[in-house]
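**Archive record**
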Amino acid sequence: MAYYEIRDWIKDIKPSSDKKASLEEYGGLNLEILKKLYYTMVLTRRIELEEKILLRKGLCKFFIGCGGKELIDVVAAQALKIDDPFIGYYRNKAFDMYRGVTIKEKILEAVGDPRAEATGGMLQPAHSSYPELAILPQASPTGSHAMEAAGLGDAIKNPLPIIGNAGLPGGRFKPDAVVFCAIGEGATSSPEFGRAVFYSTFGNTPNIFGIYNCGWAISTSVKEQFPDGNPTSCYIGMQKYGLLIKDFDGTDIKESIKEFREMADYVRSGKGPSIANINVVRMESHSGSDDQAHYMEHDEQQYHINNDPLRKVAKTYIDDNLFTADEIVAIFNEVDIEVKKISTEVTADIRTKTRDDILGKVYSYRKDKAEKRWQKLVHERSQLRIKKYSEYHKQGIFDTDELPENQPPMMMRKAINYSLFDLFIMSDDTILFGEDVADFPIETFKKGETLLSTLKGKGGVFLTTQNLQRAFGPKRVFNTPLDEAGILGRAVGHAYQGRIPFPEIQFIDYMSPGYQQLKDRIATTYQRSNAKINLPMIIRTSYGGYKQGAGAMWHSEANLGAFINIPGLHVAIPSNAGDAAGLLRTAFICGDPALFCEAVALYNRRDWEGYNIMTKYPPIEFLVPFGEAKVYNQDAKDMVIISYGITLPMSLKASEILAEKGILCRVIDLRTVKPIDWNTISTAVKECSRVMIVSEDRFYGGVGPTIAGYIADNLFDFLDAPVKILSAQDARVAYGLDGDTICLPQTADVVNMAIALTKY
């Protein structure tokens, strides 16, 4: 039933009796609020009608409706506090409108105008982002947002104050906030939703998960997803741990007000999280490209029409003598005029997006701004740092009270450990978590220093986080379940709240379960929020082979092509102790998410086949900017070898061997493979004319072909020979020394390829 048909249907409704209902049946809400609830529902439906009109005119390119969900949206928005965070999906337009989003904003979003405050015209309509209204950026991969919500609940519950010397002062949301996550019943089949409910229950976090169950995920029936059509059934066992489960009619206003308010009160009291199966209807097909008449039986379609909340609420109001039919119809007419007027004004002046409207909102990192932030932290905390190092030495955490920059050259693992201590001292807003990162389980830590002093502690499988928990406590450094998606989802929540999280993925080989969180949510937030929200975090992970035969499949992965192809993500790969410290500091203050890849084979290595790779720890003021490579043998011009990470010391060793043969090689250490220092590469190509790229990455979609493609496209005229790429074989690394030798580039391979290149 269309907008105007509903209005005309309401005209004929007569009260069922002369008795006026008590407002207590509506949770004690007054008539003004009840009218606002209905007004917002009507307004939302009329905006969607306008979107369809604009679609037919060719001004709007996509339509996805919220019809049938408006009532629970406005009930939730009214029951929650105005600053309670909302993490929804693309069916929550009525929630937005109740919180204060304007008609103009929604029309701008519909036509993709860059002046749209929420998305800058970046996303399809109905993808909201209004951080000033505590409505956090939405994305199309539904289900994954539940993990963000659980992470934010964890972040709000964490009692650590957010000082703001590096993070967001005071935190974005108050300690008594409730996180509401709205989700369709189809998306609850995702594993991330199940984990989100588990984490919220396990952590007793302030989360409400409202499942808008209309019975259909496009053309898939809910009964094809759950035996009884109820997505909450599989969580019944969690009730004994504090999970409140509700099941109610989201098209009935009295029931919805009562049930949602009970959930909000329960969660805000600290008793536990809540999950609800909220039965709603679907007034439109899934989207403009879908036609539900093709698969939904006629009786089913009629059920949805009969239970349209715009009809049901109007009839309830009139039956209860709260409003007359004429008063309800007047709302339709008022809204109709207002939406037409604003739509006409907006569409008379549609602006198209410029390149900067899109490309200027992918990264927030600016070298000068990052340096100023770091200088400020150094100025504020350098004396505290000296004091803390002395304290940690007395506690037995450090072997010496000498600052690391005053110590001899060191291995990379030690430099990373010192860097983490530095960053935790420099800011109170840091938090580190992952599998096995803590020194002790929480239950052991709580037993006190007497016991802890008898145990060495863990601190990471490679000891990079050793003693961090001893020094900073279990609220800042703790273990998580073995769940990469959960680790990254928790990081999103803490970043939203204003901290700078350090989530650790133990091996890059196991990033896959968290890939959606990384690619679709973490890396897109700055762009899809119209550059309003940053998610600064350092995702630390070990990577690579050359483990003296101990590695193999799932423990020797180094294929970075999947990660450098993610807009919004920096990828840093140090090859020595000094650069590890400088890059970690930059990652910390860059403002964006950064993937920090640590070569296992370099952690405890002093040399590479006799080539010394230990370096001094840099002074605390020192930074390695993203996108700035380091050049070795600057004056060499016979050839340039471009590399990074593990294969960098291999390339330097090869350059020594080649020099003995009279071939002088310049060597470039990229240090970051996203961004890449194209200027340094260009200079080297022009001066050397022969180029070799050495990478532990594989060829297909790898770093090497990316660089080769750039050179071919921009520097072809300066080449005296083809660009040669030495990369890993198109196979997963096999176990044993022979596996490494066959699958991965070796020093001899570098030397042989270089000699062949000089003869071209």
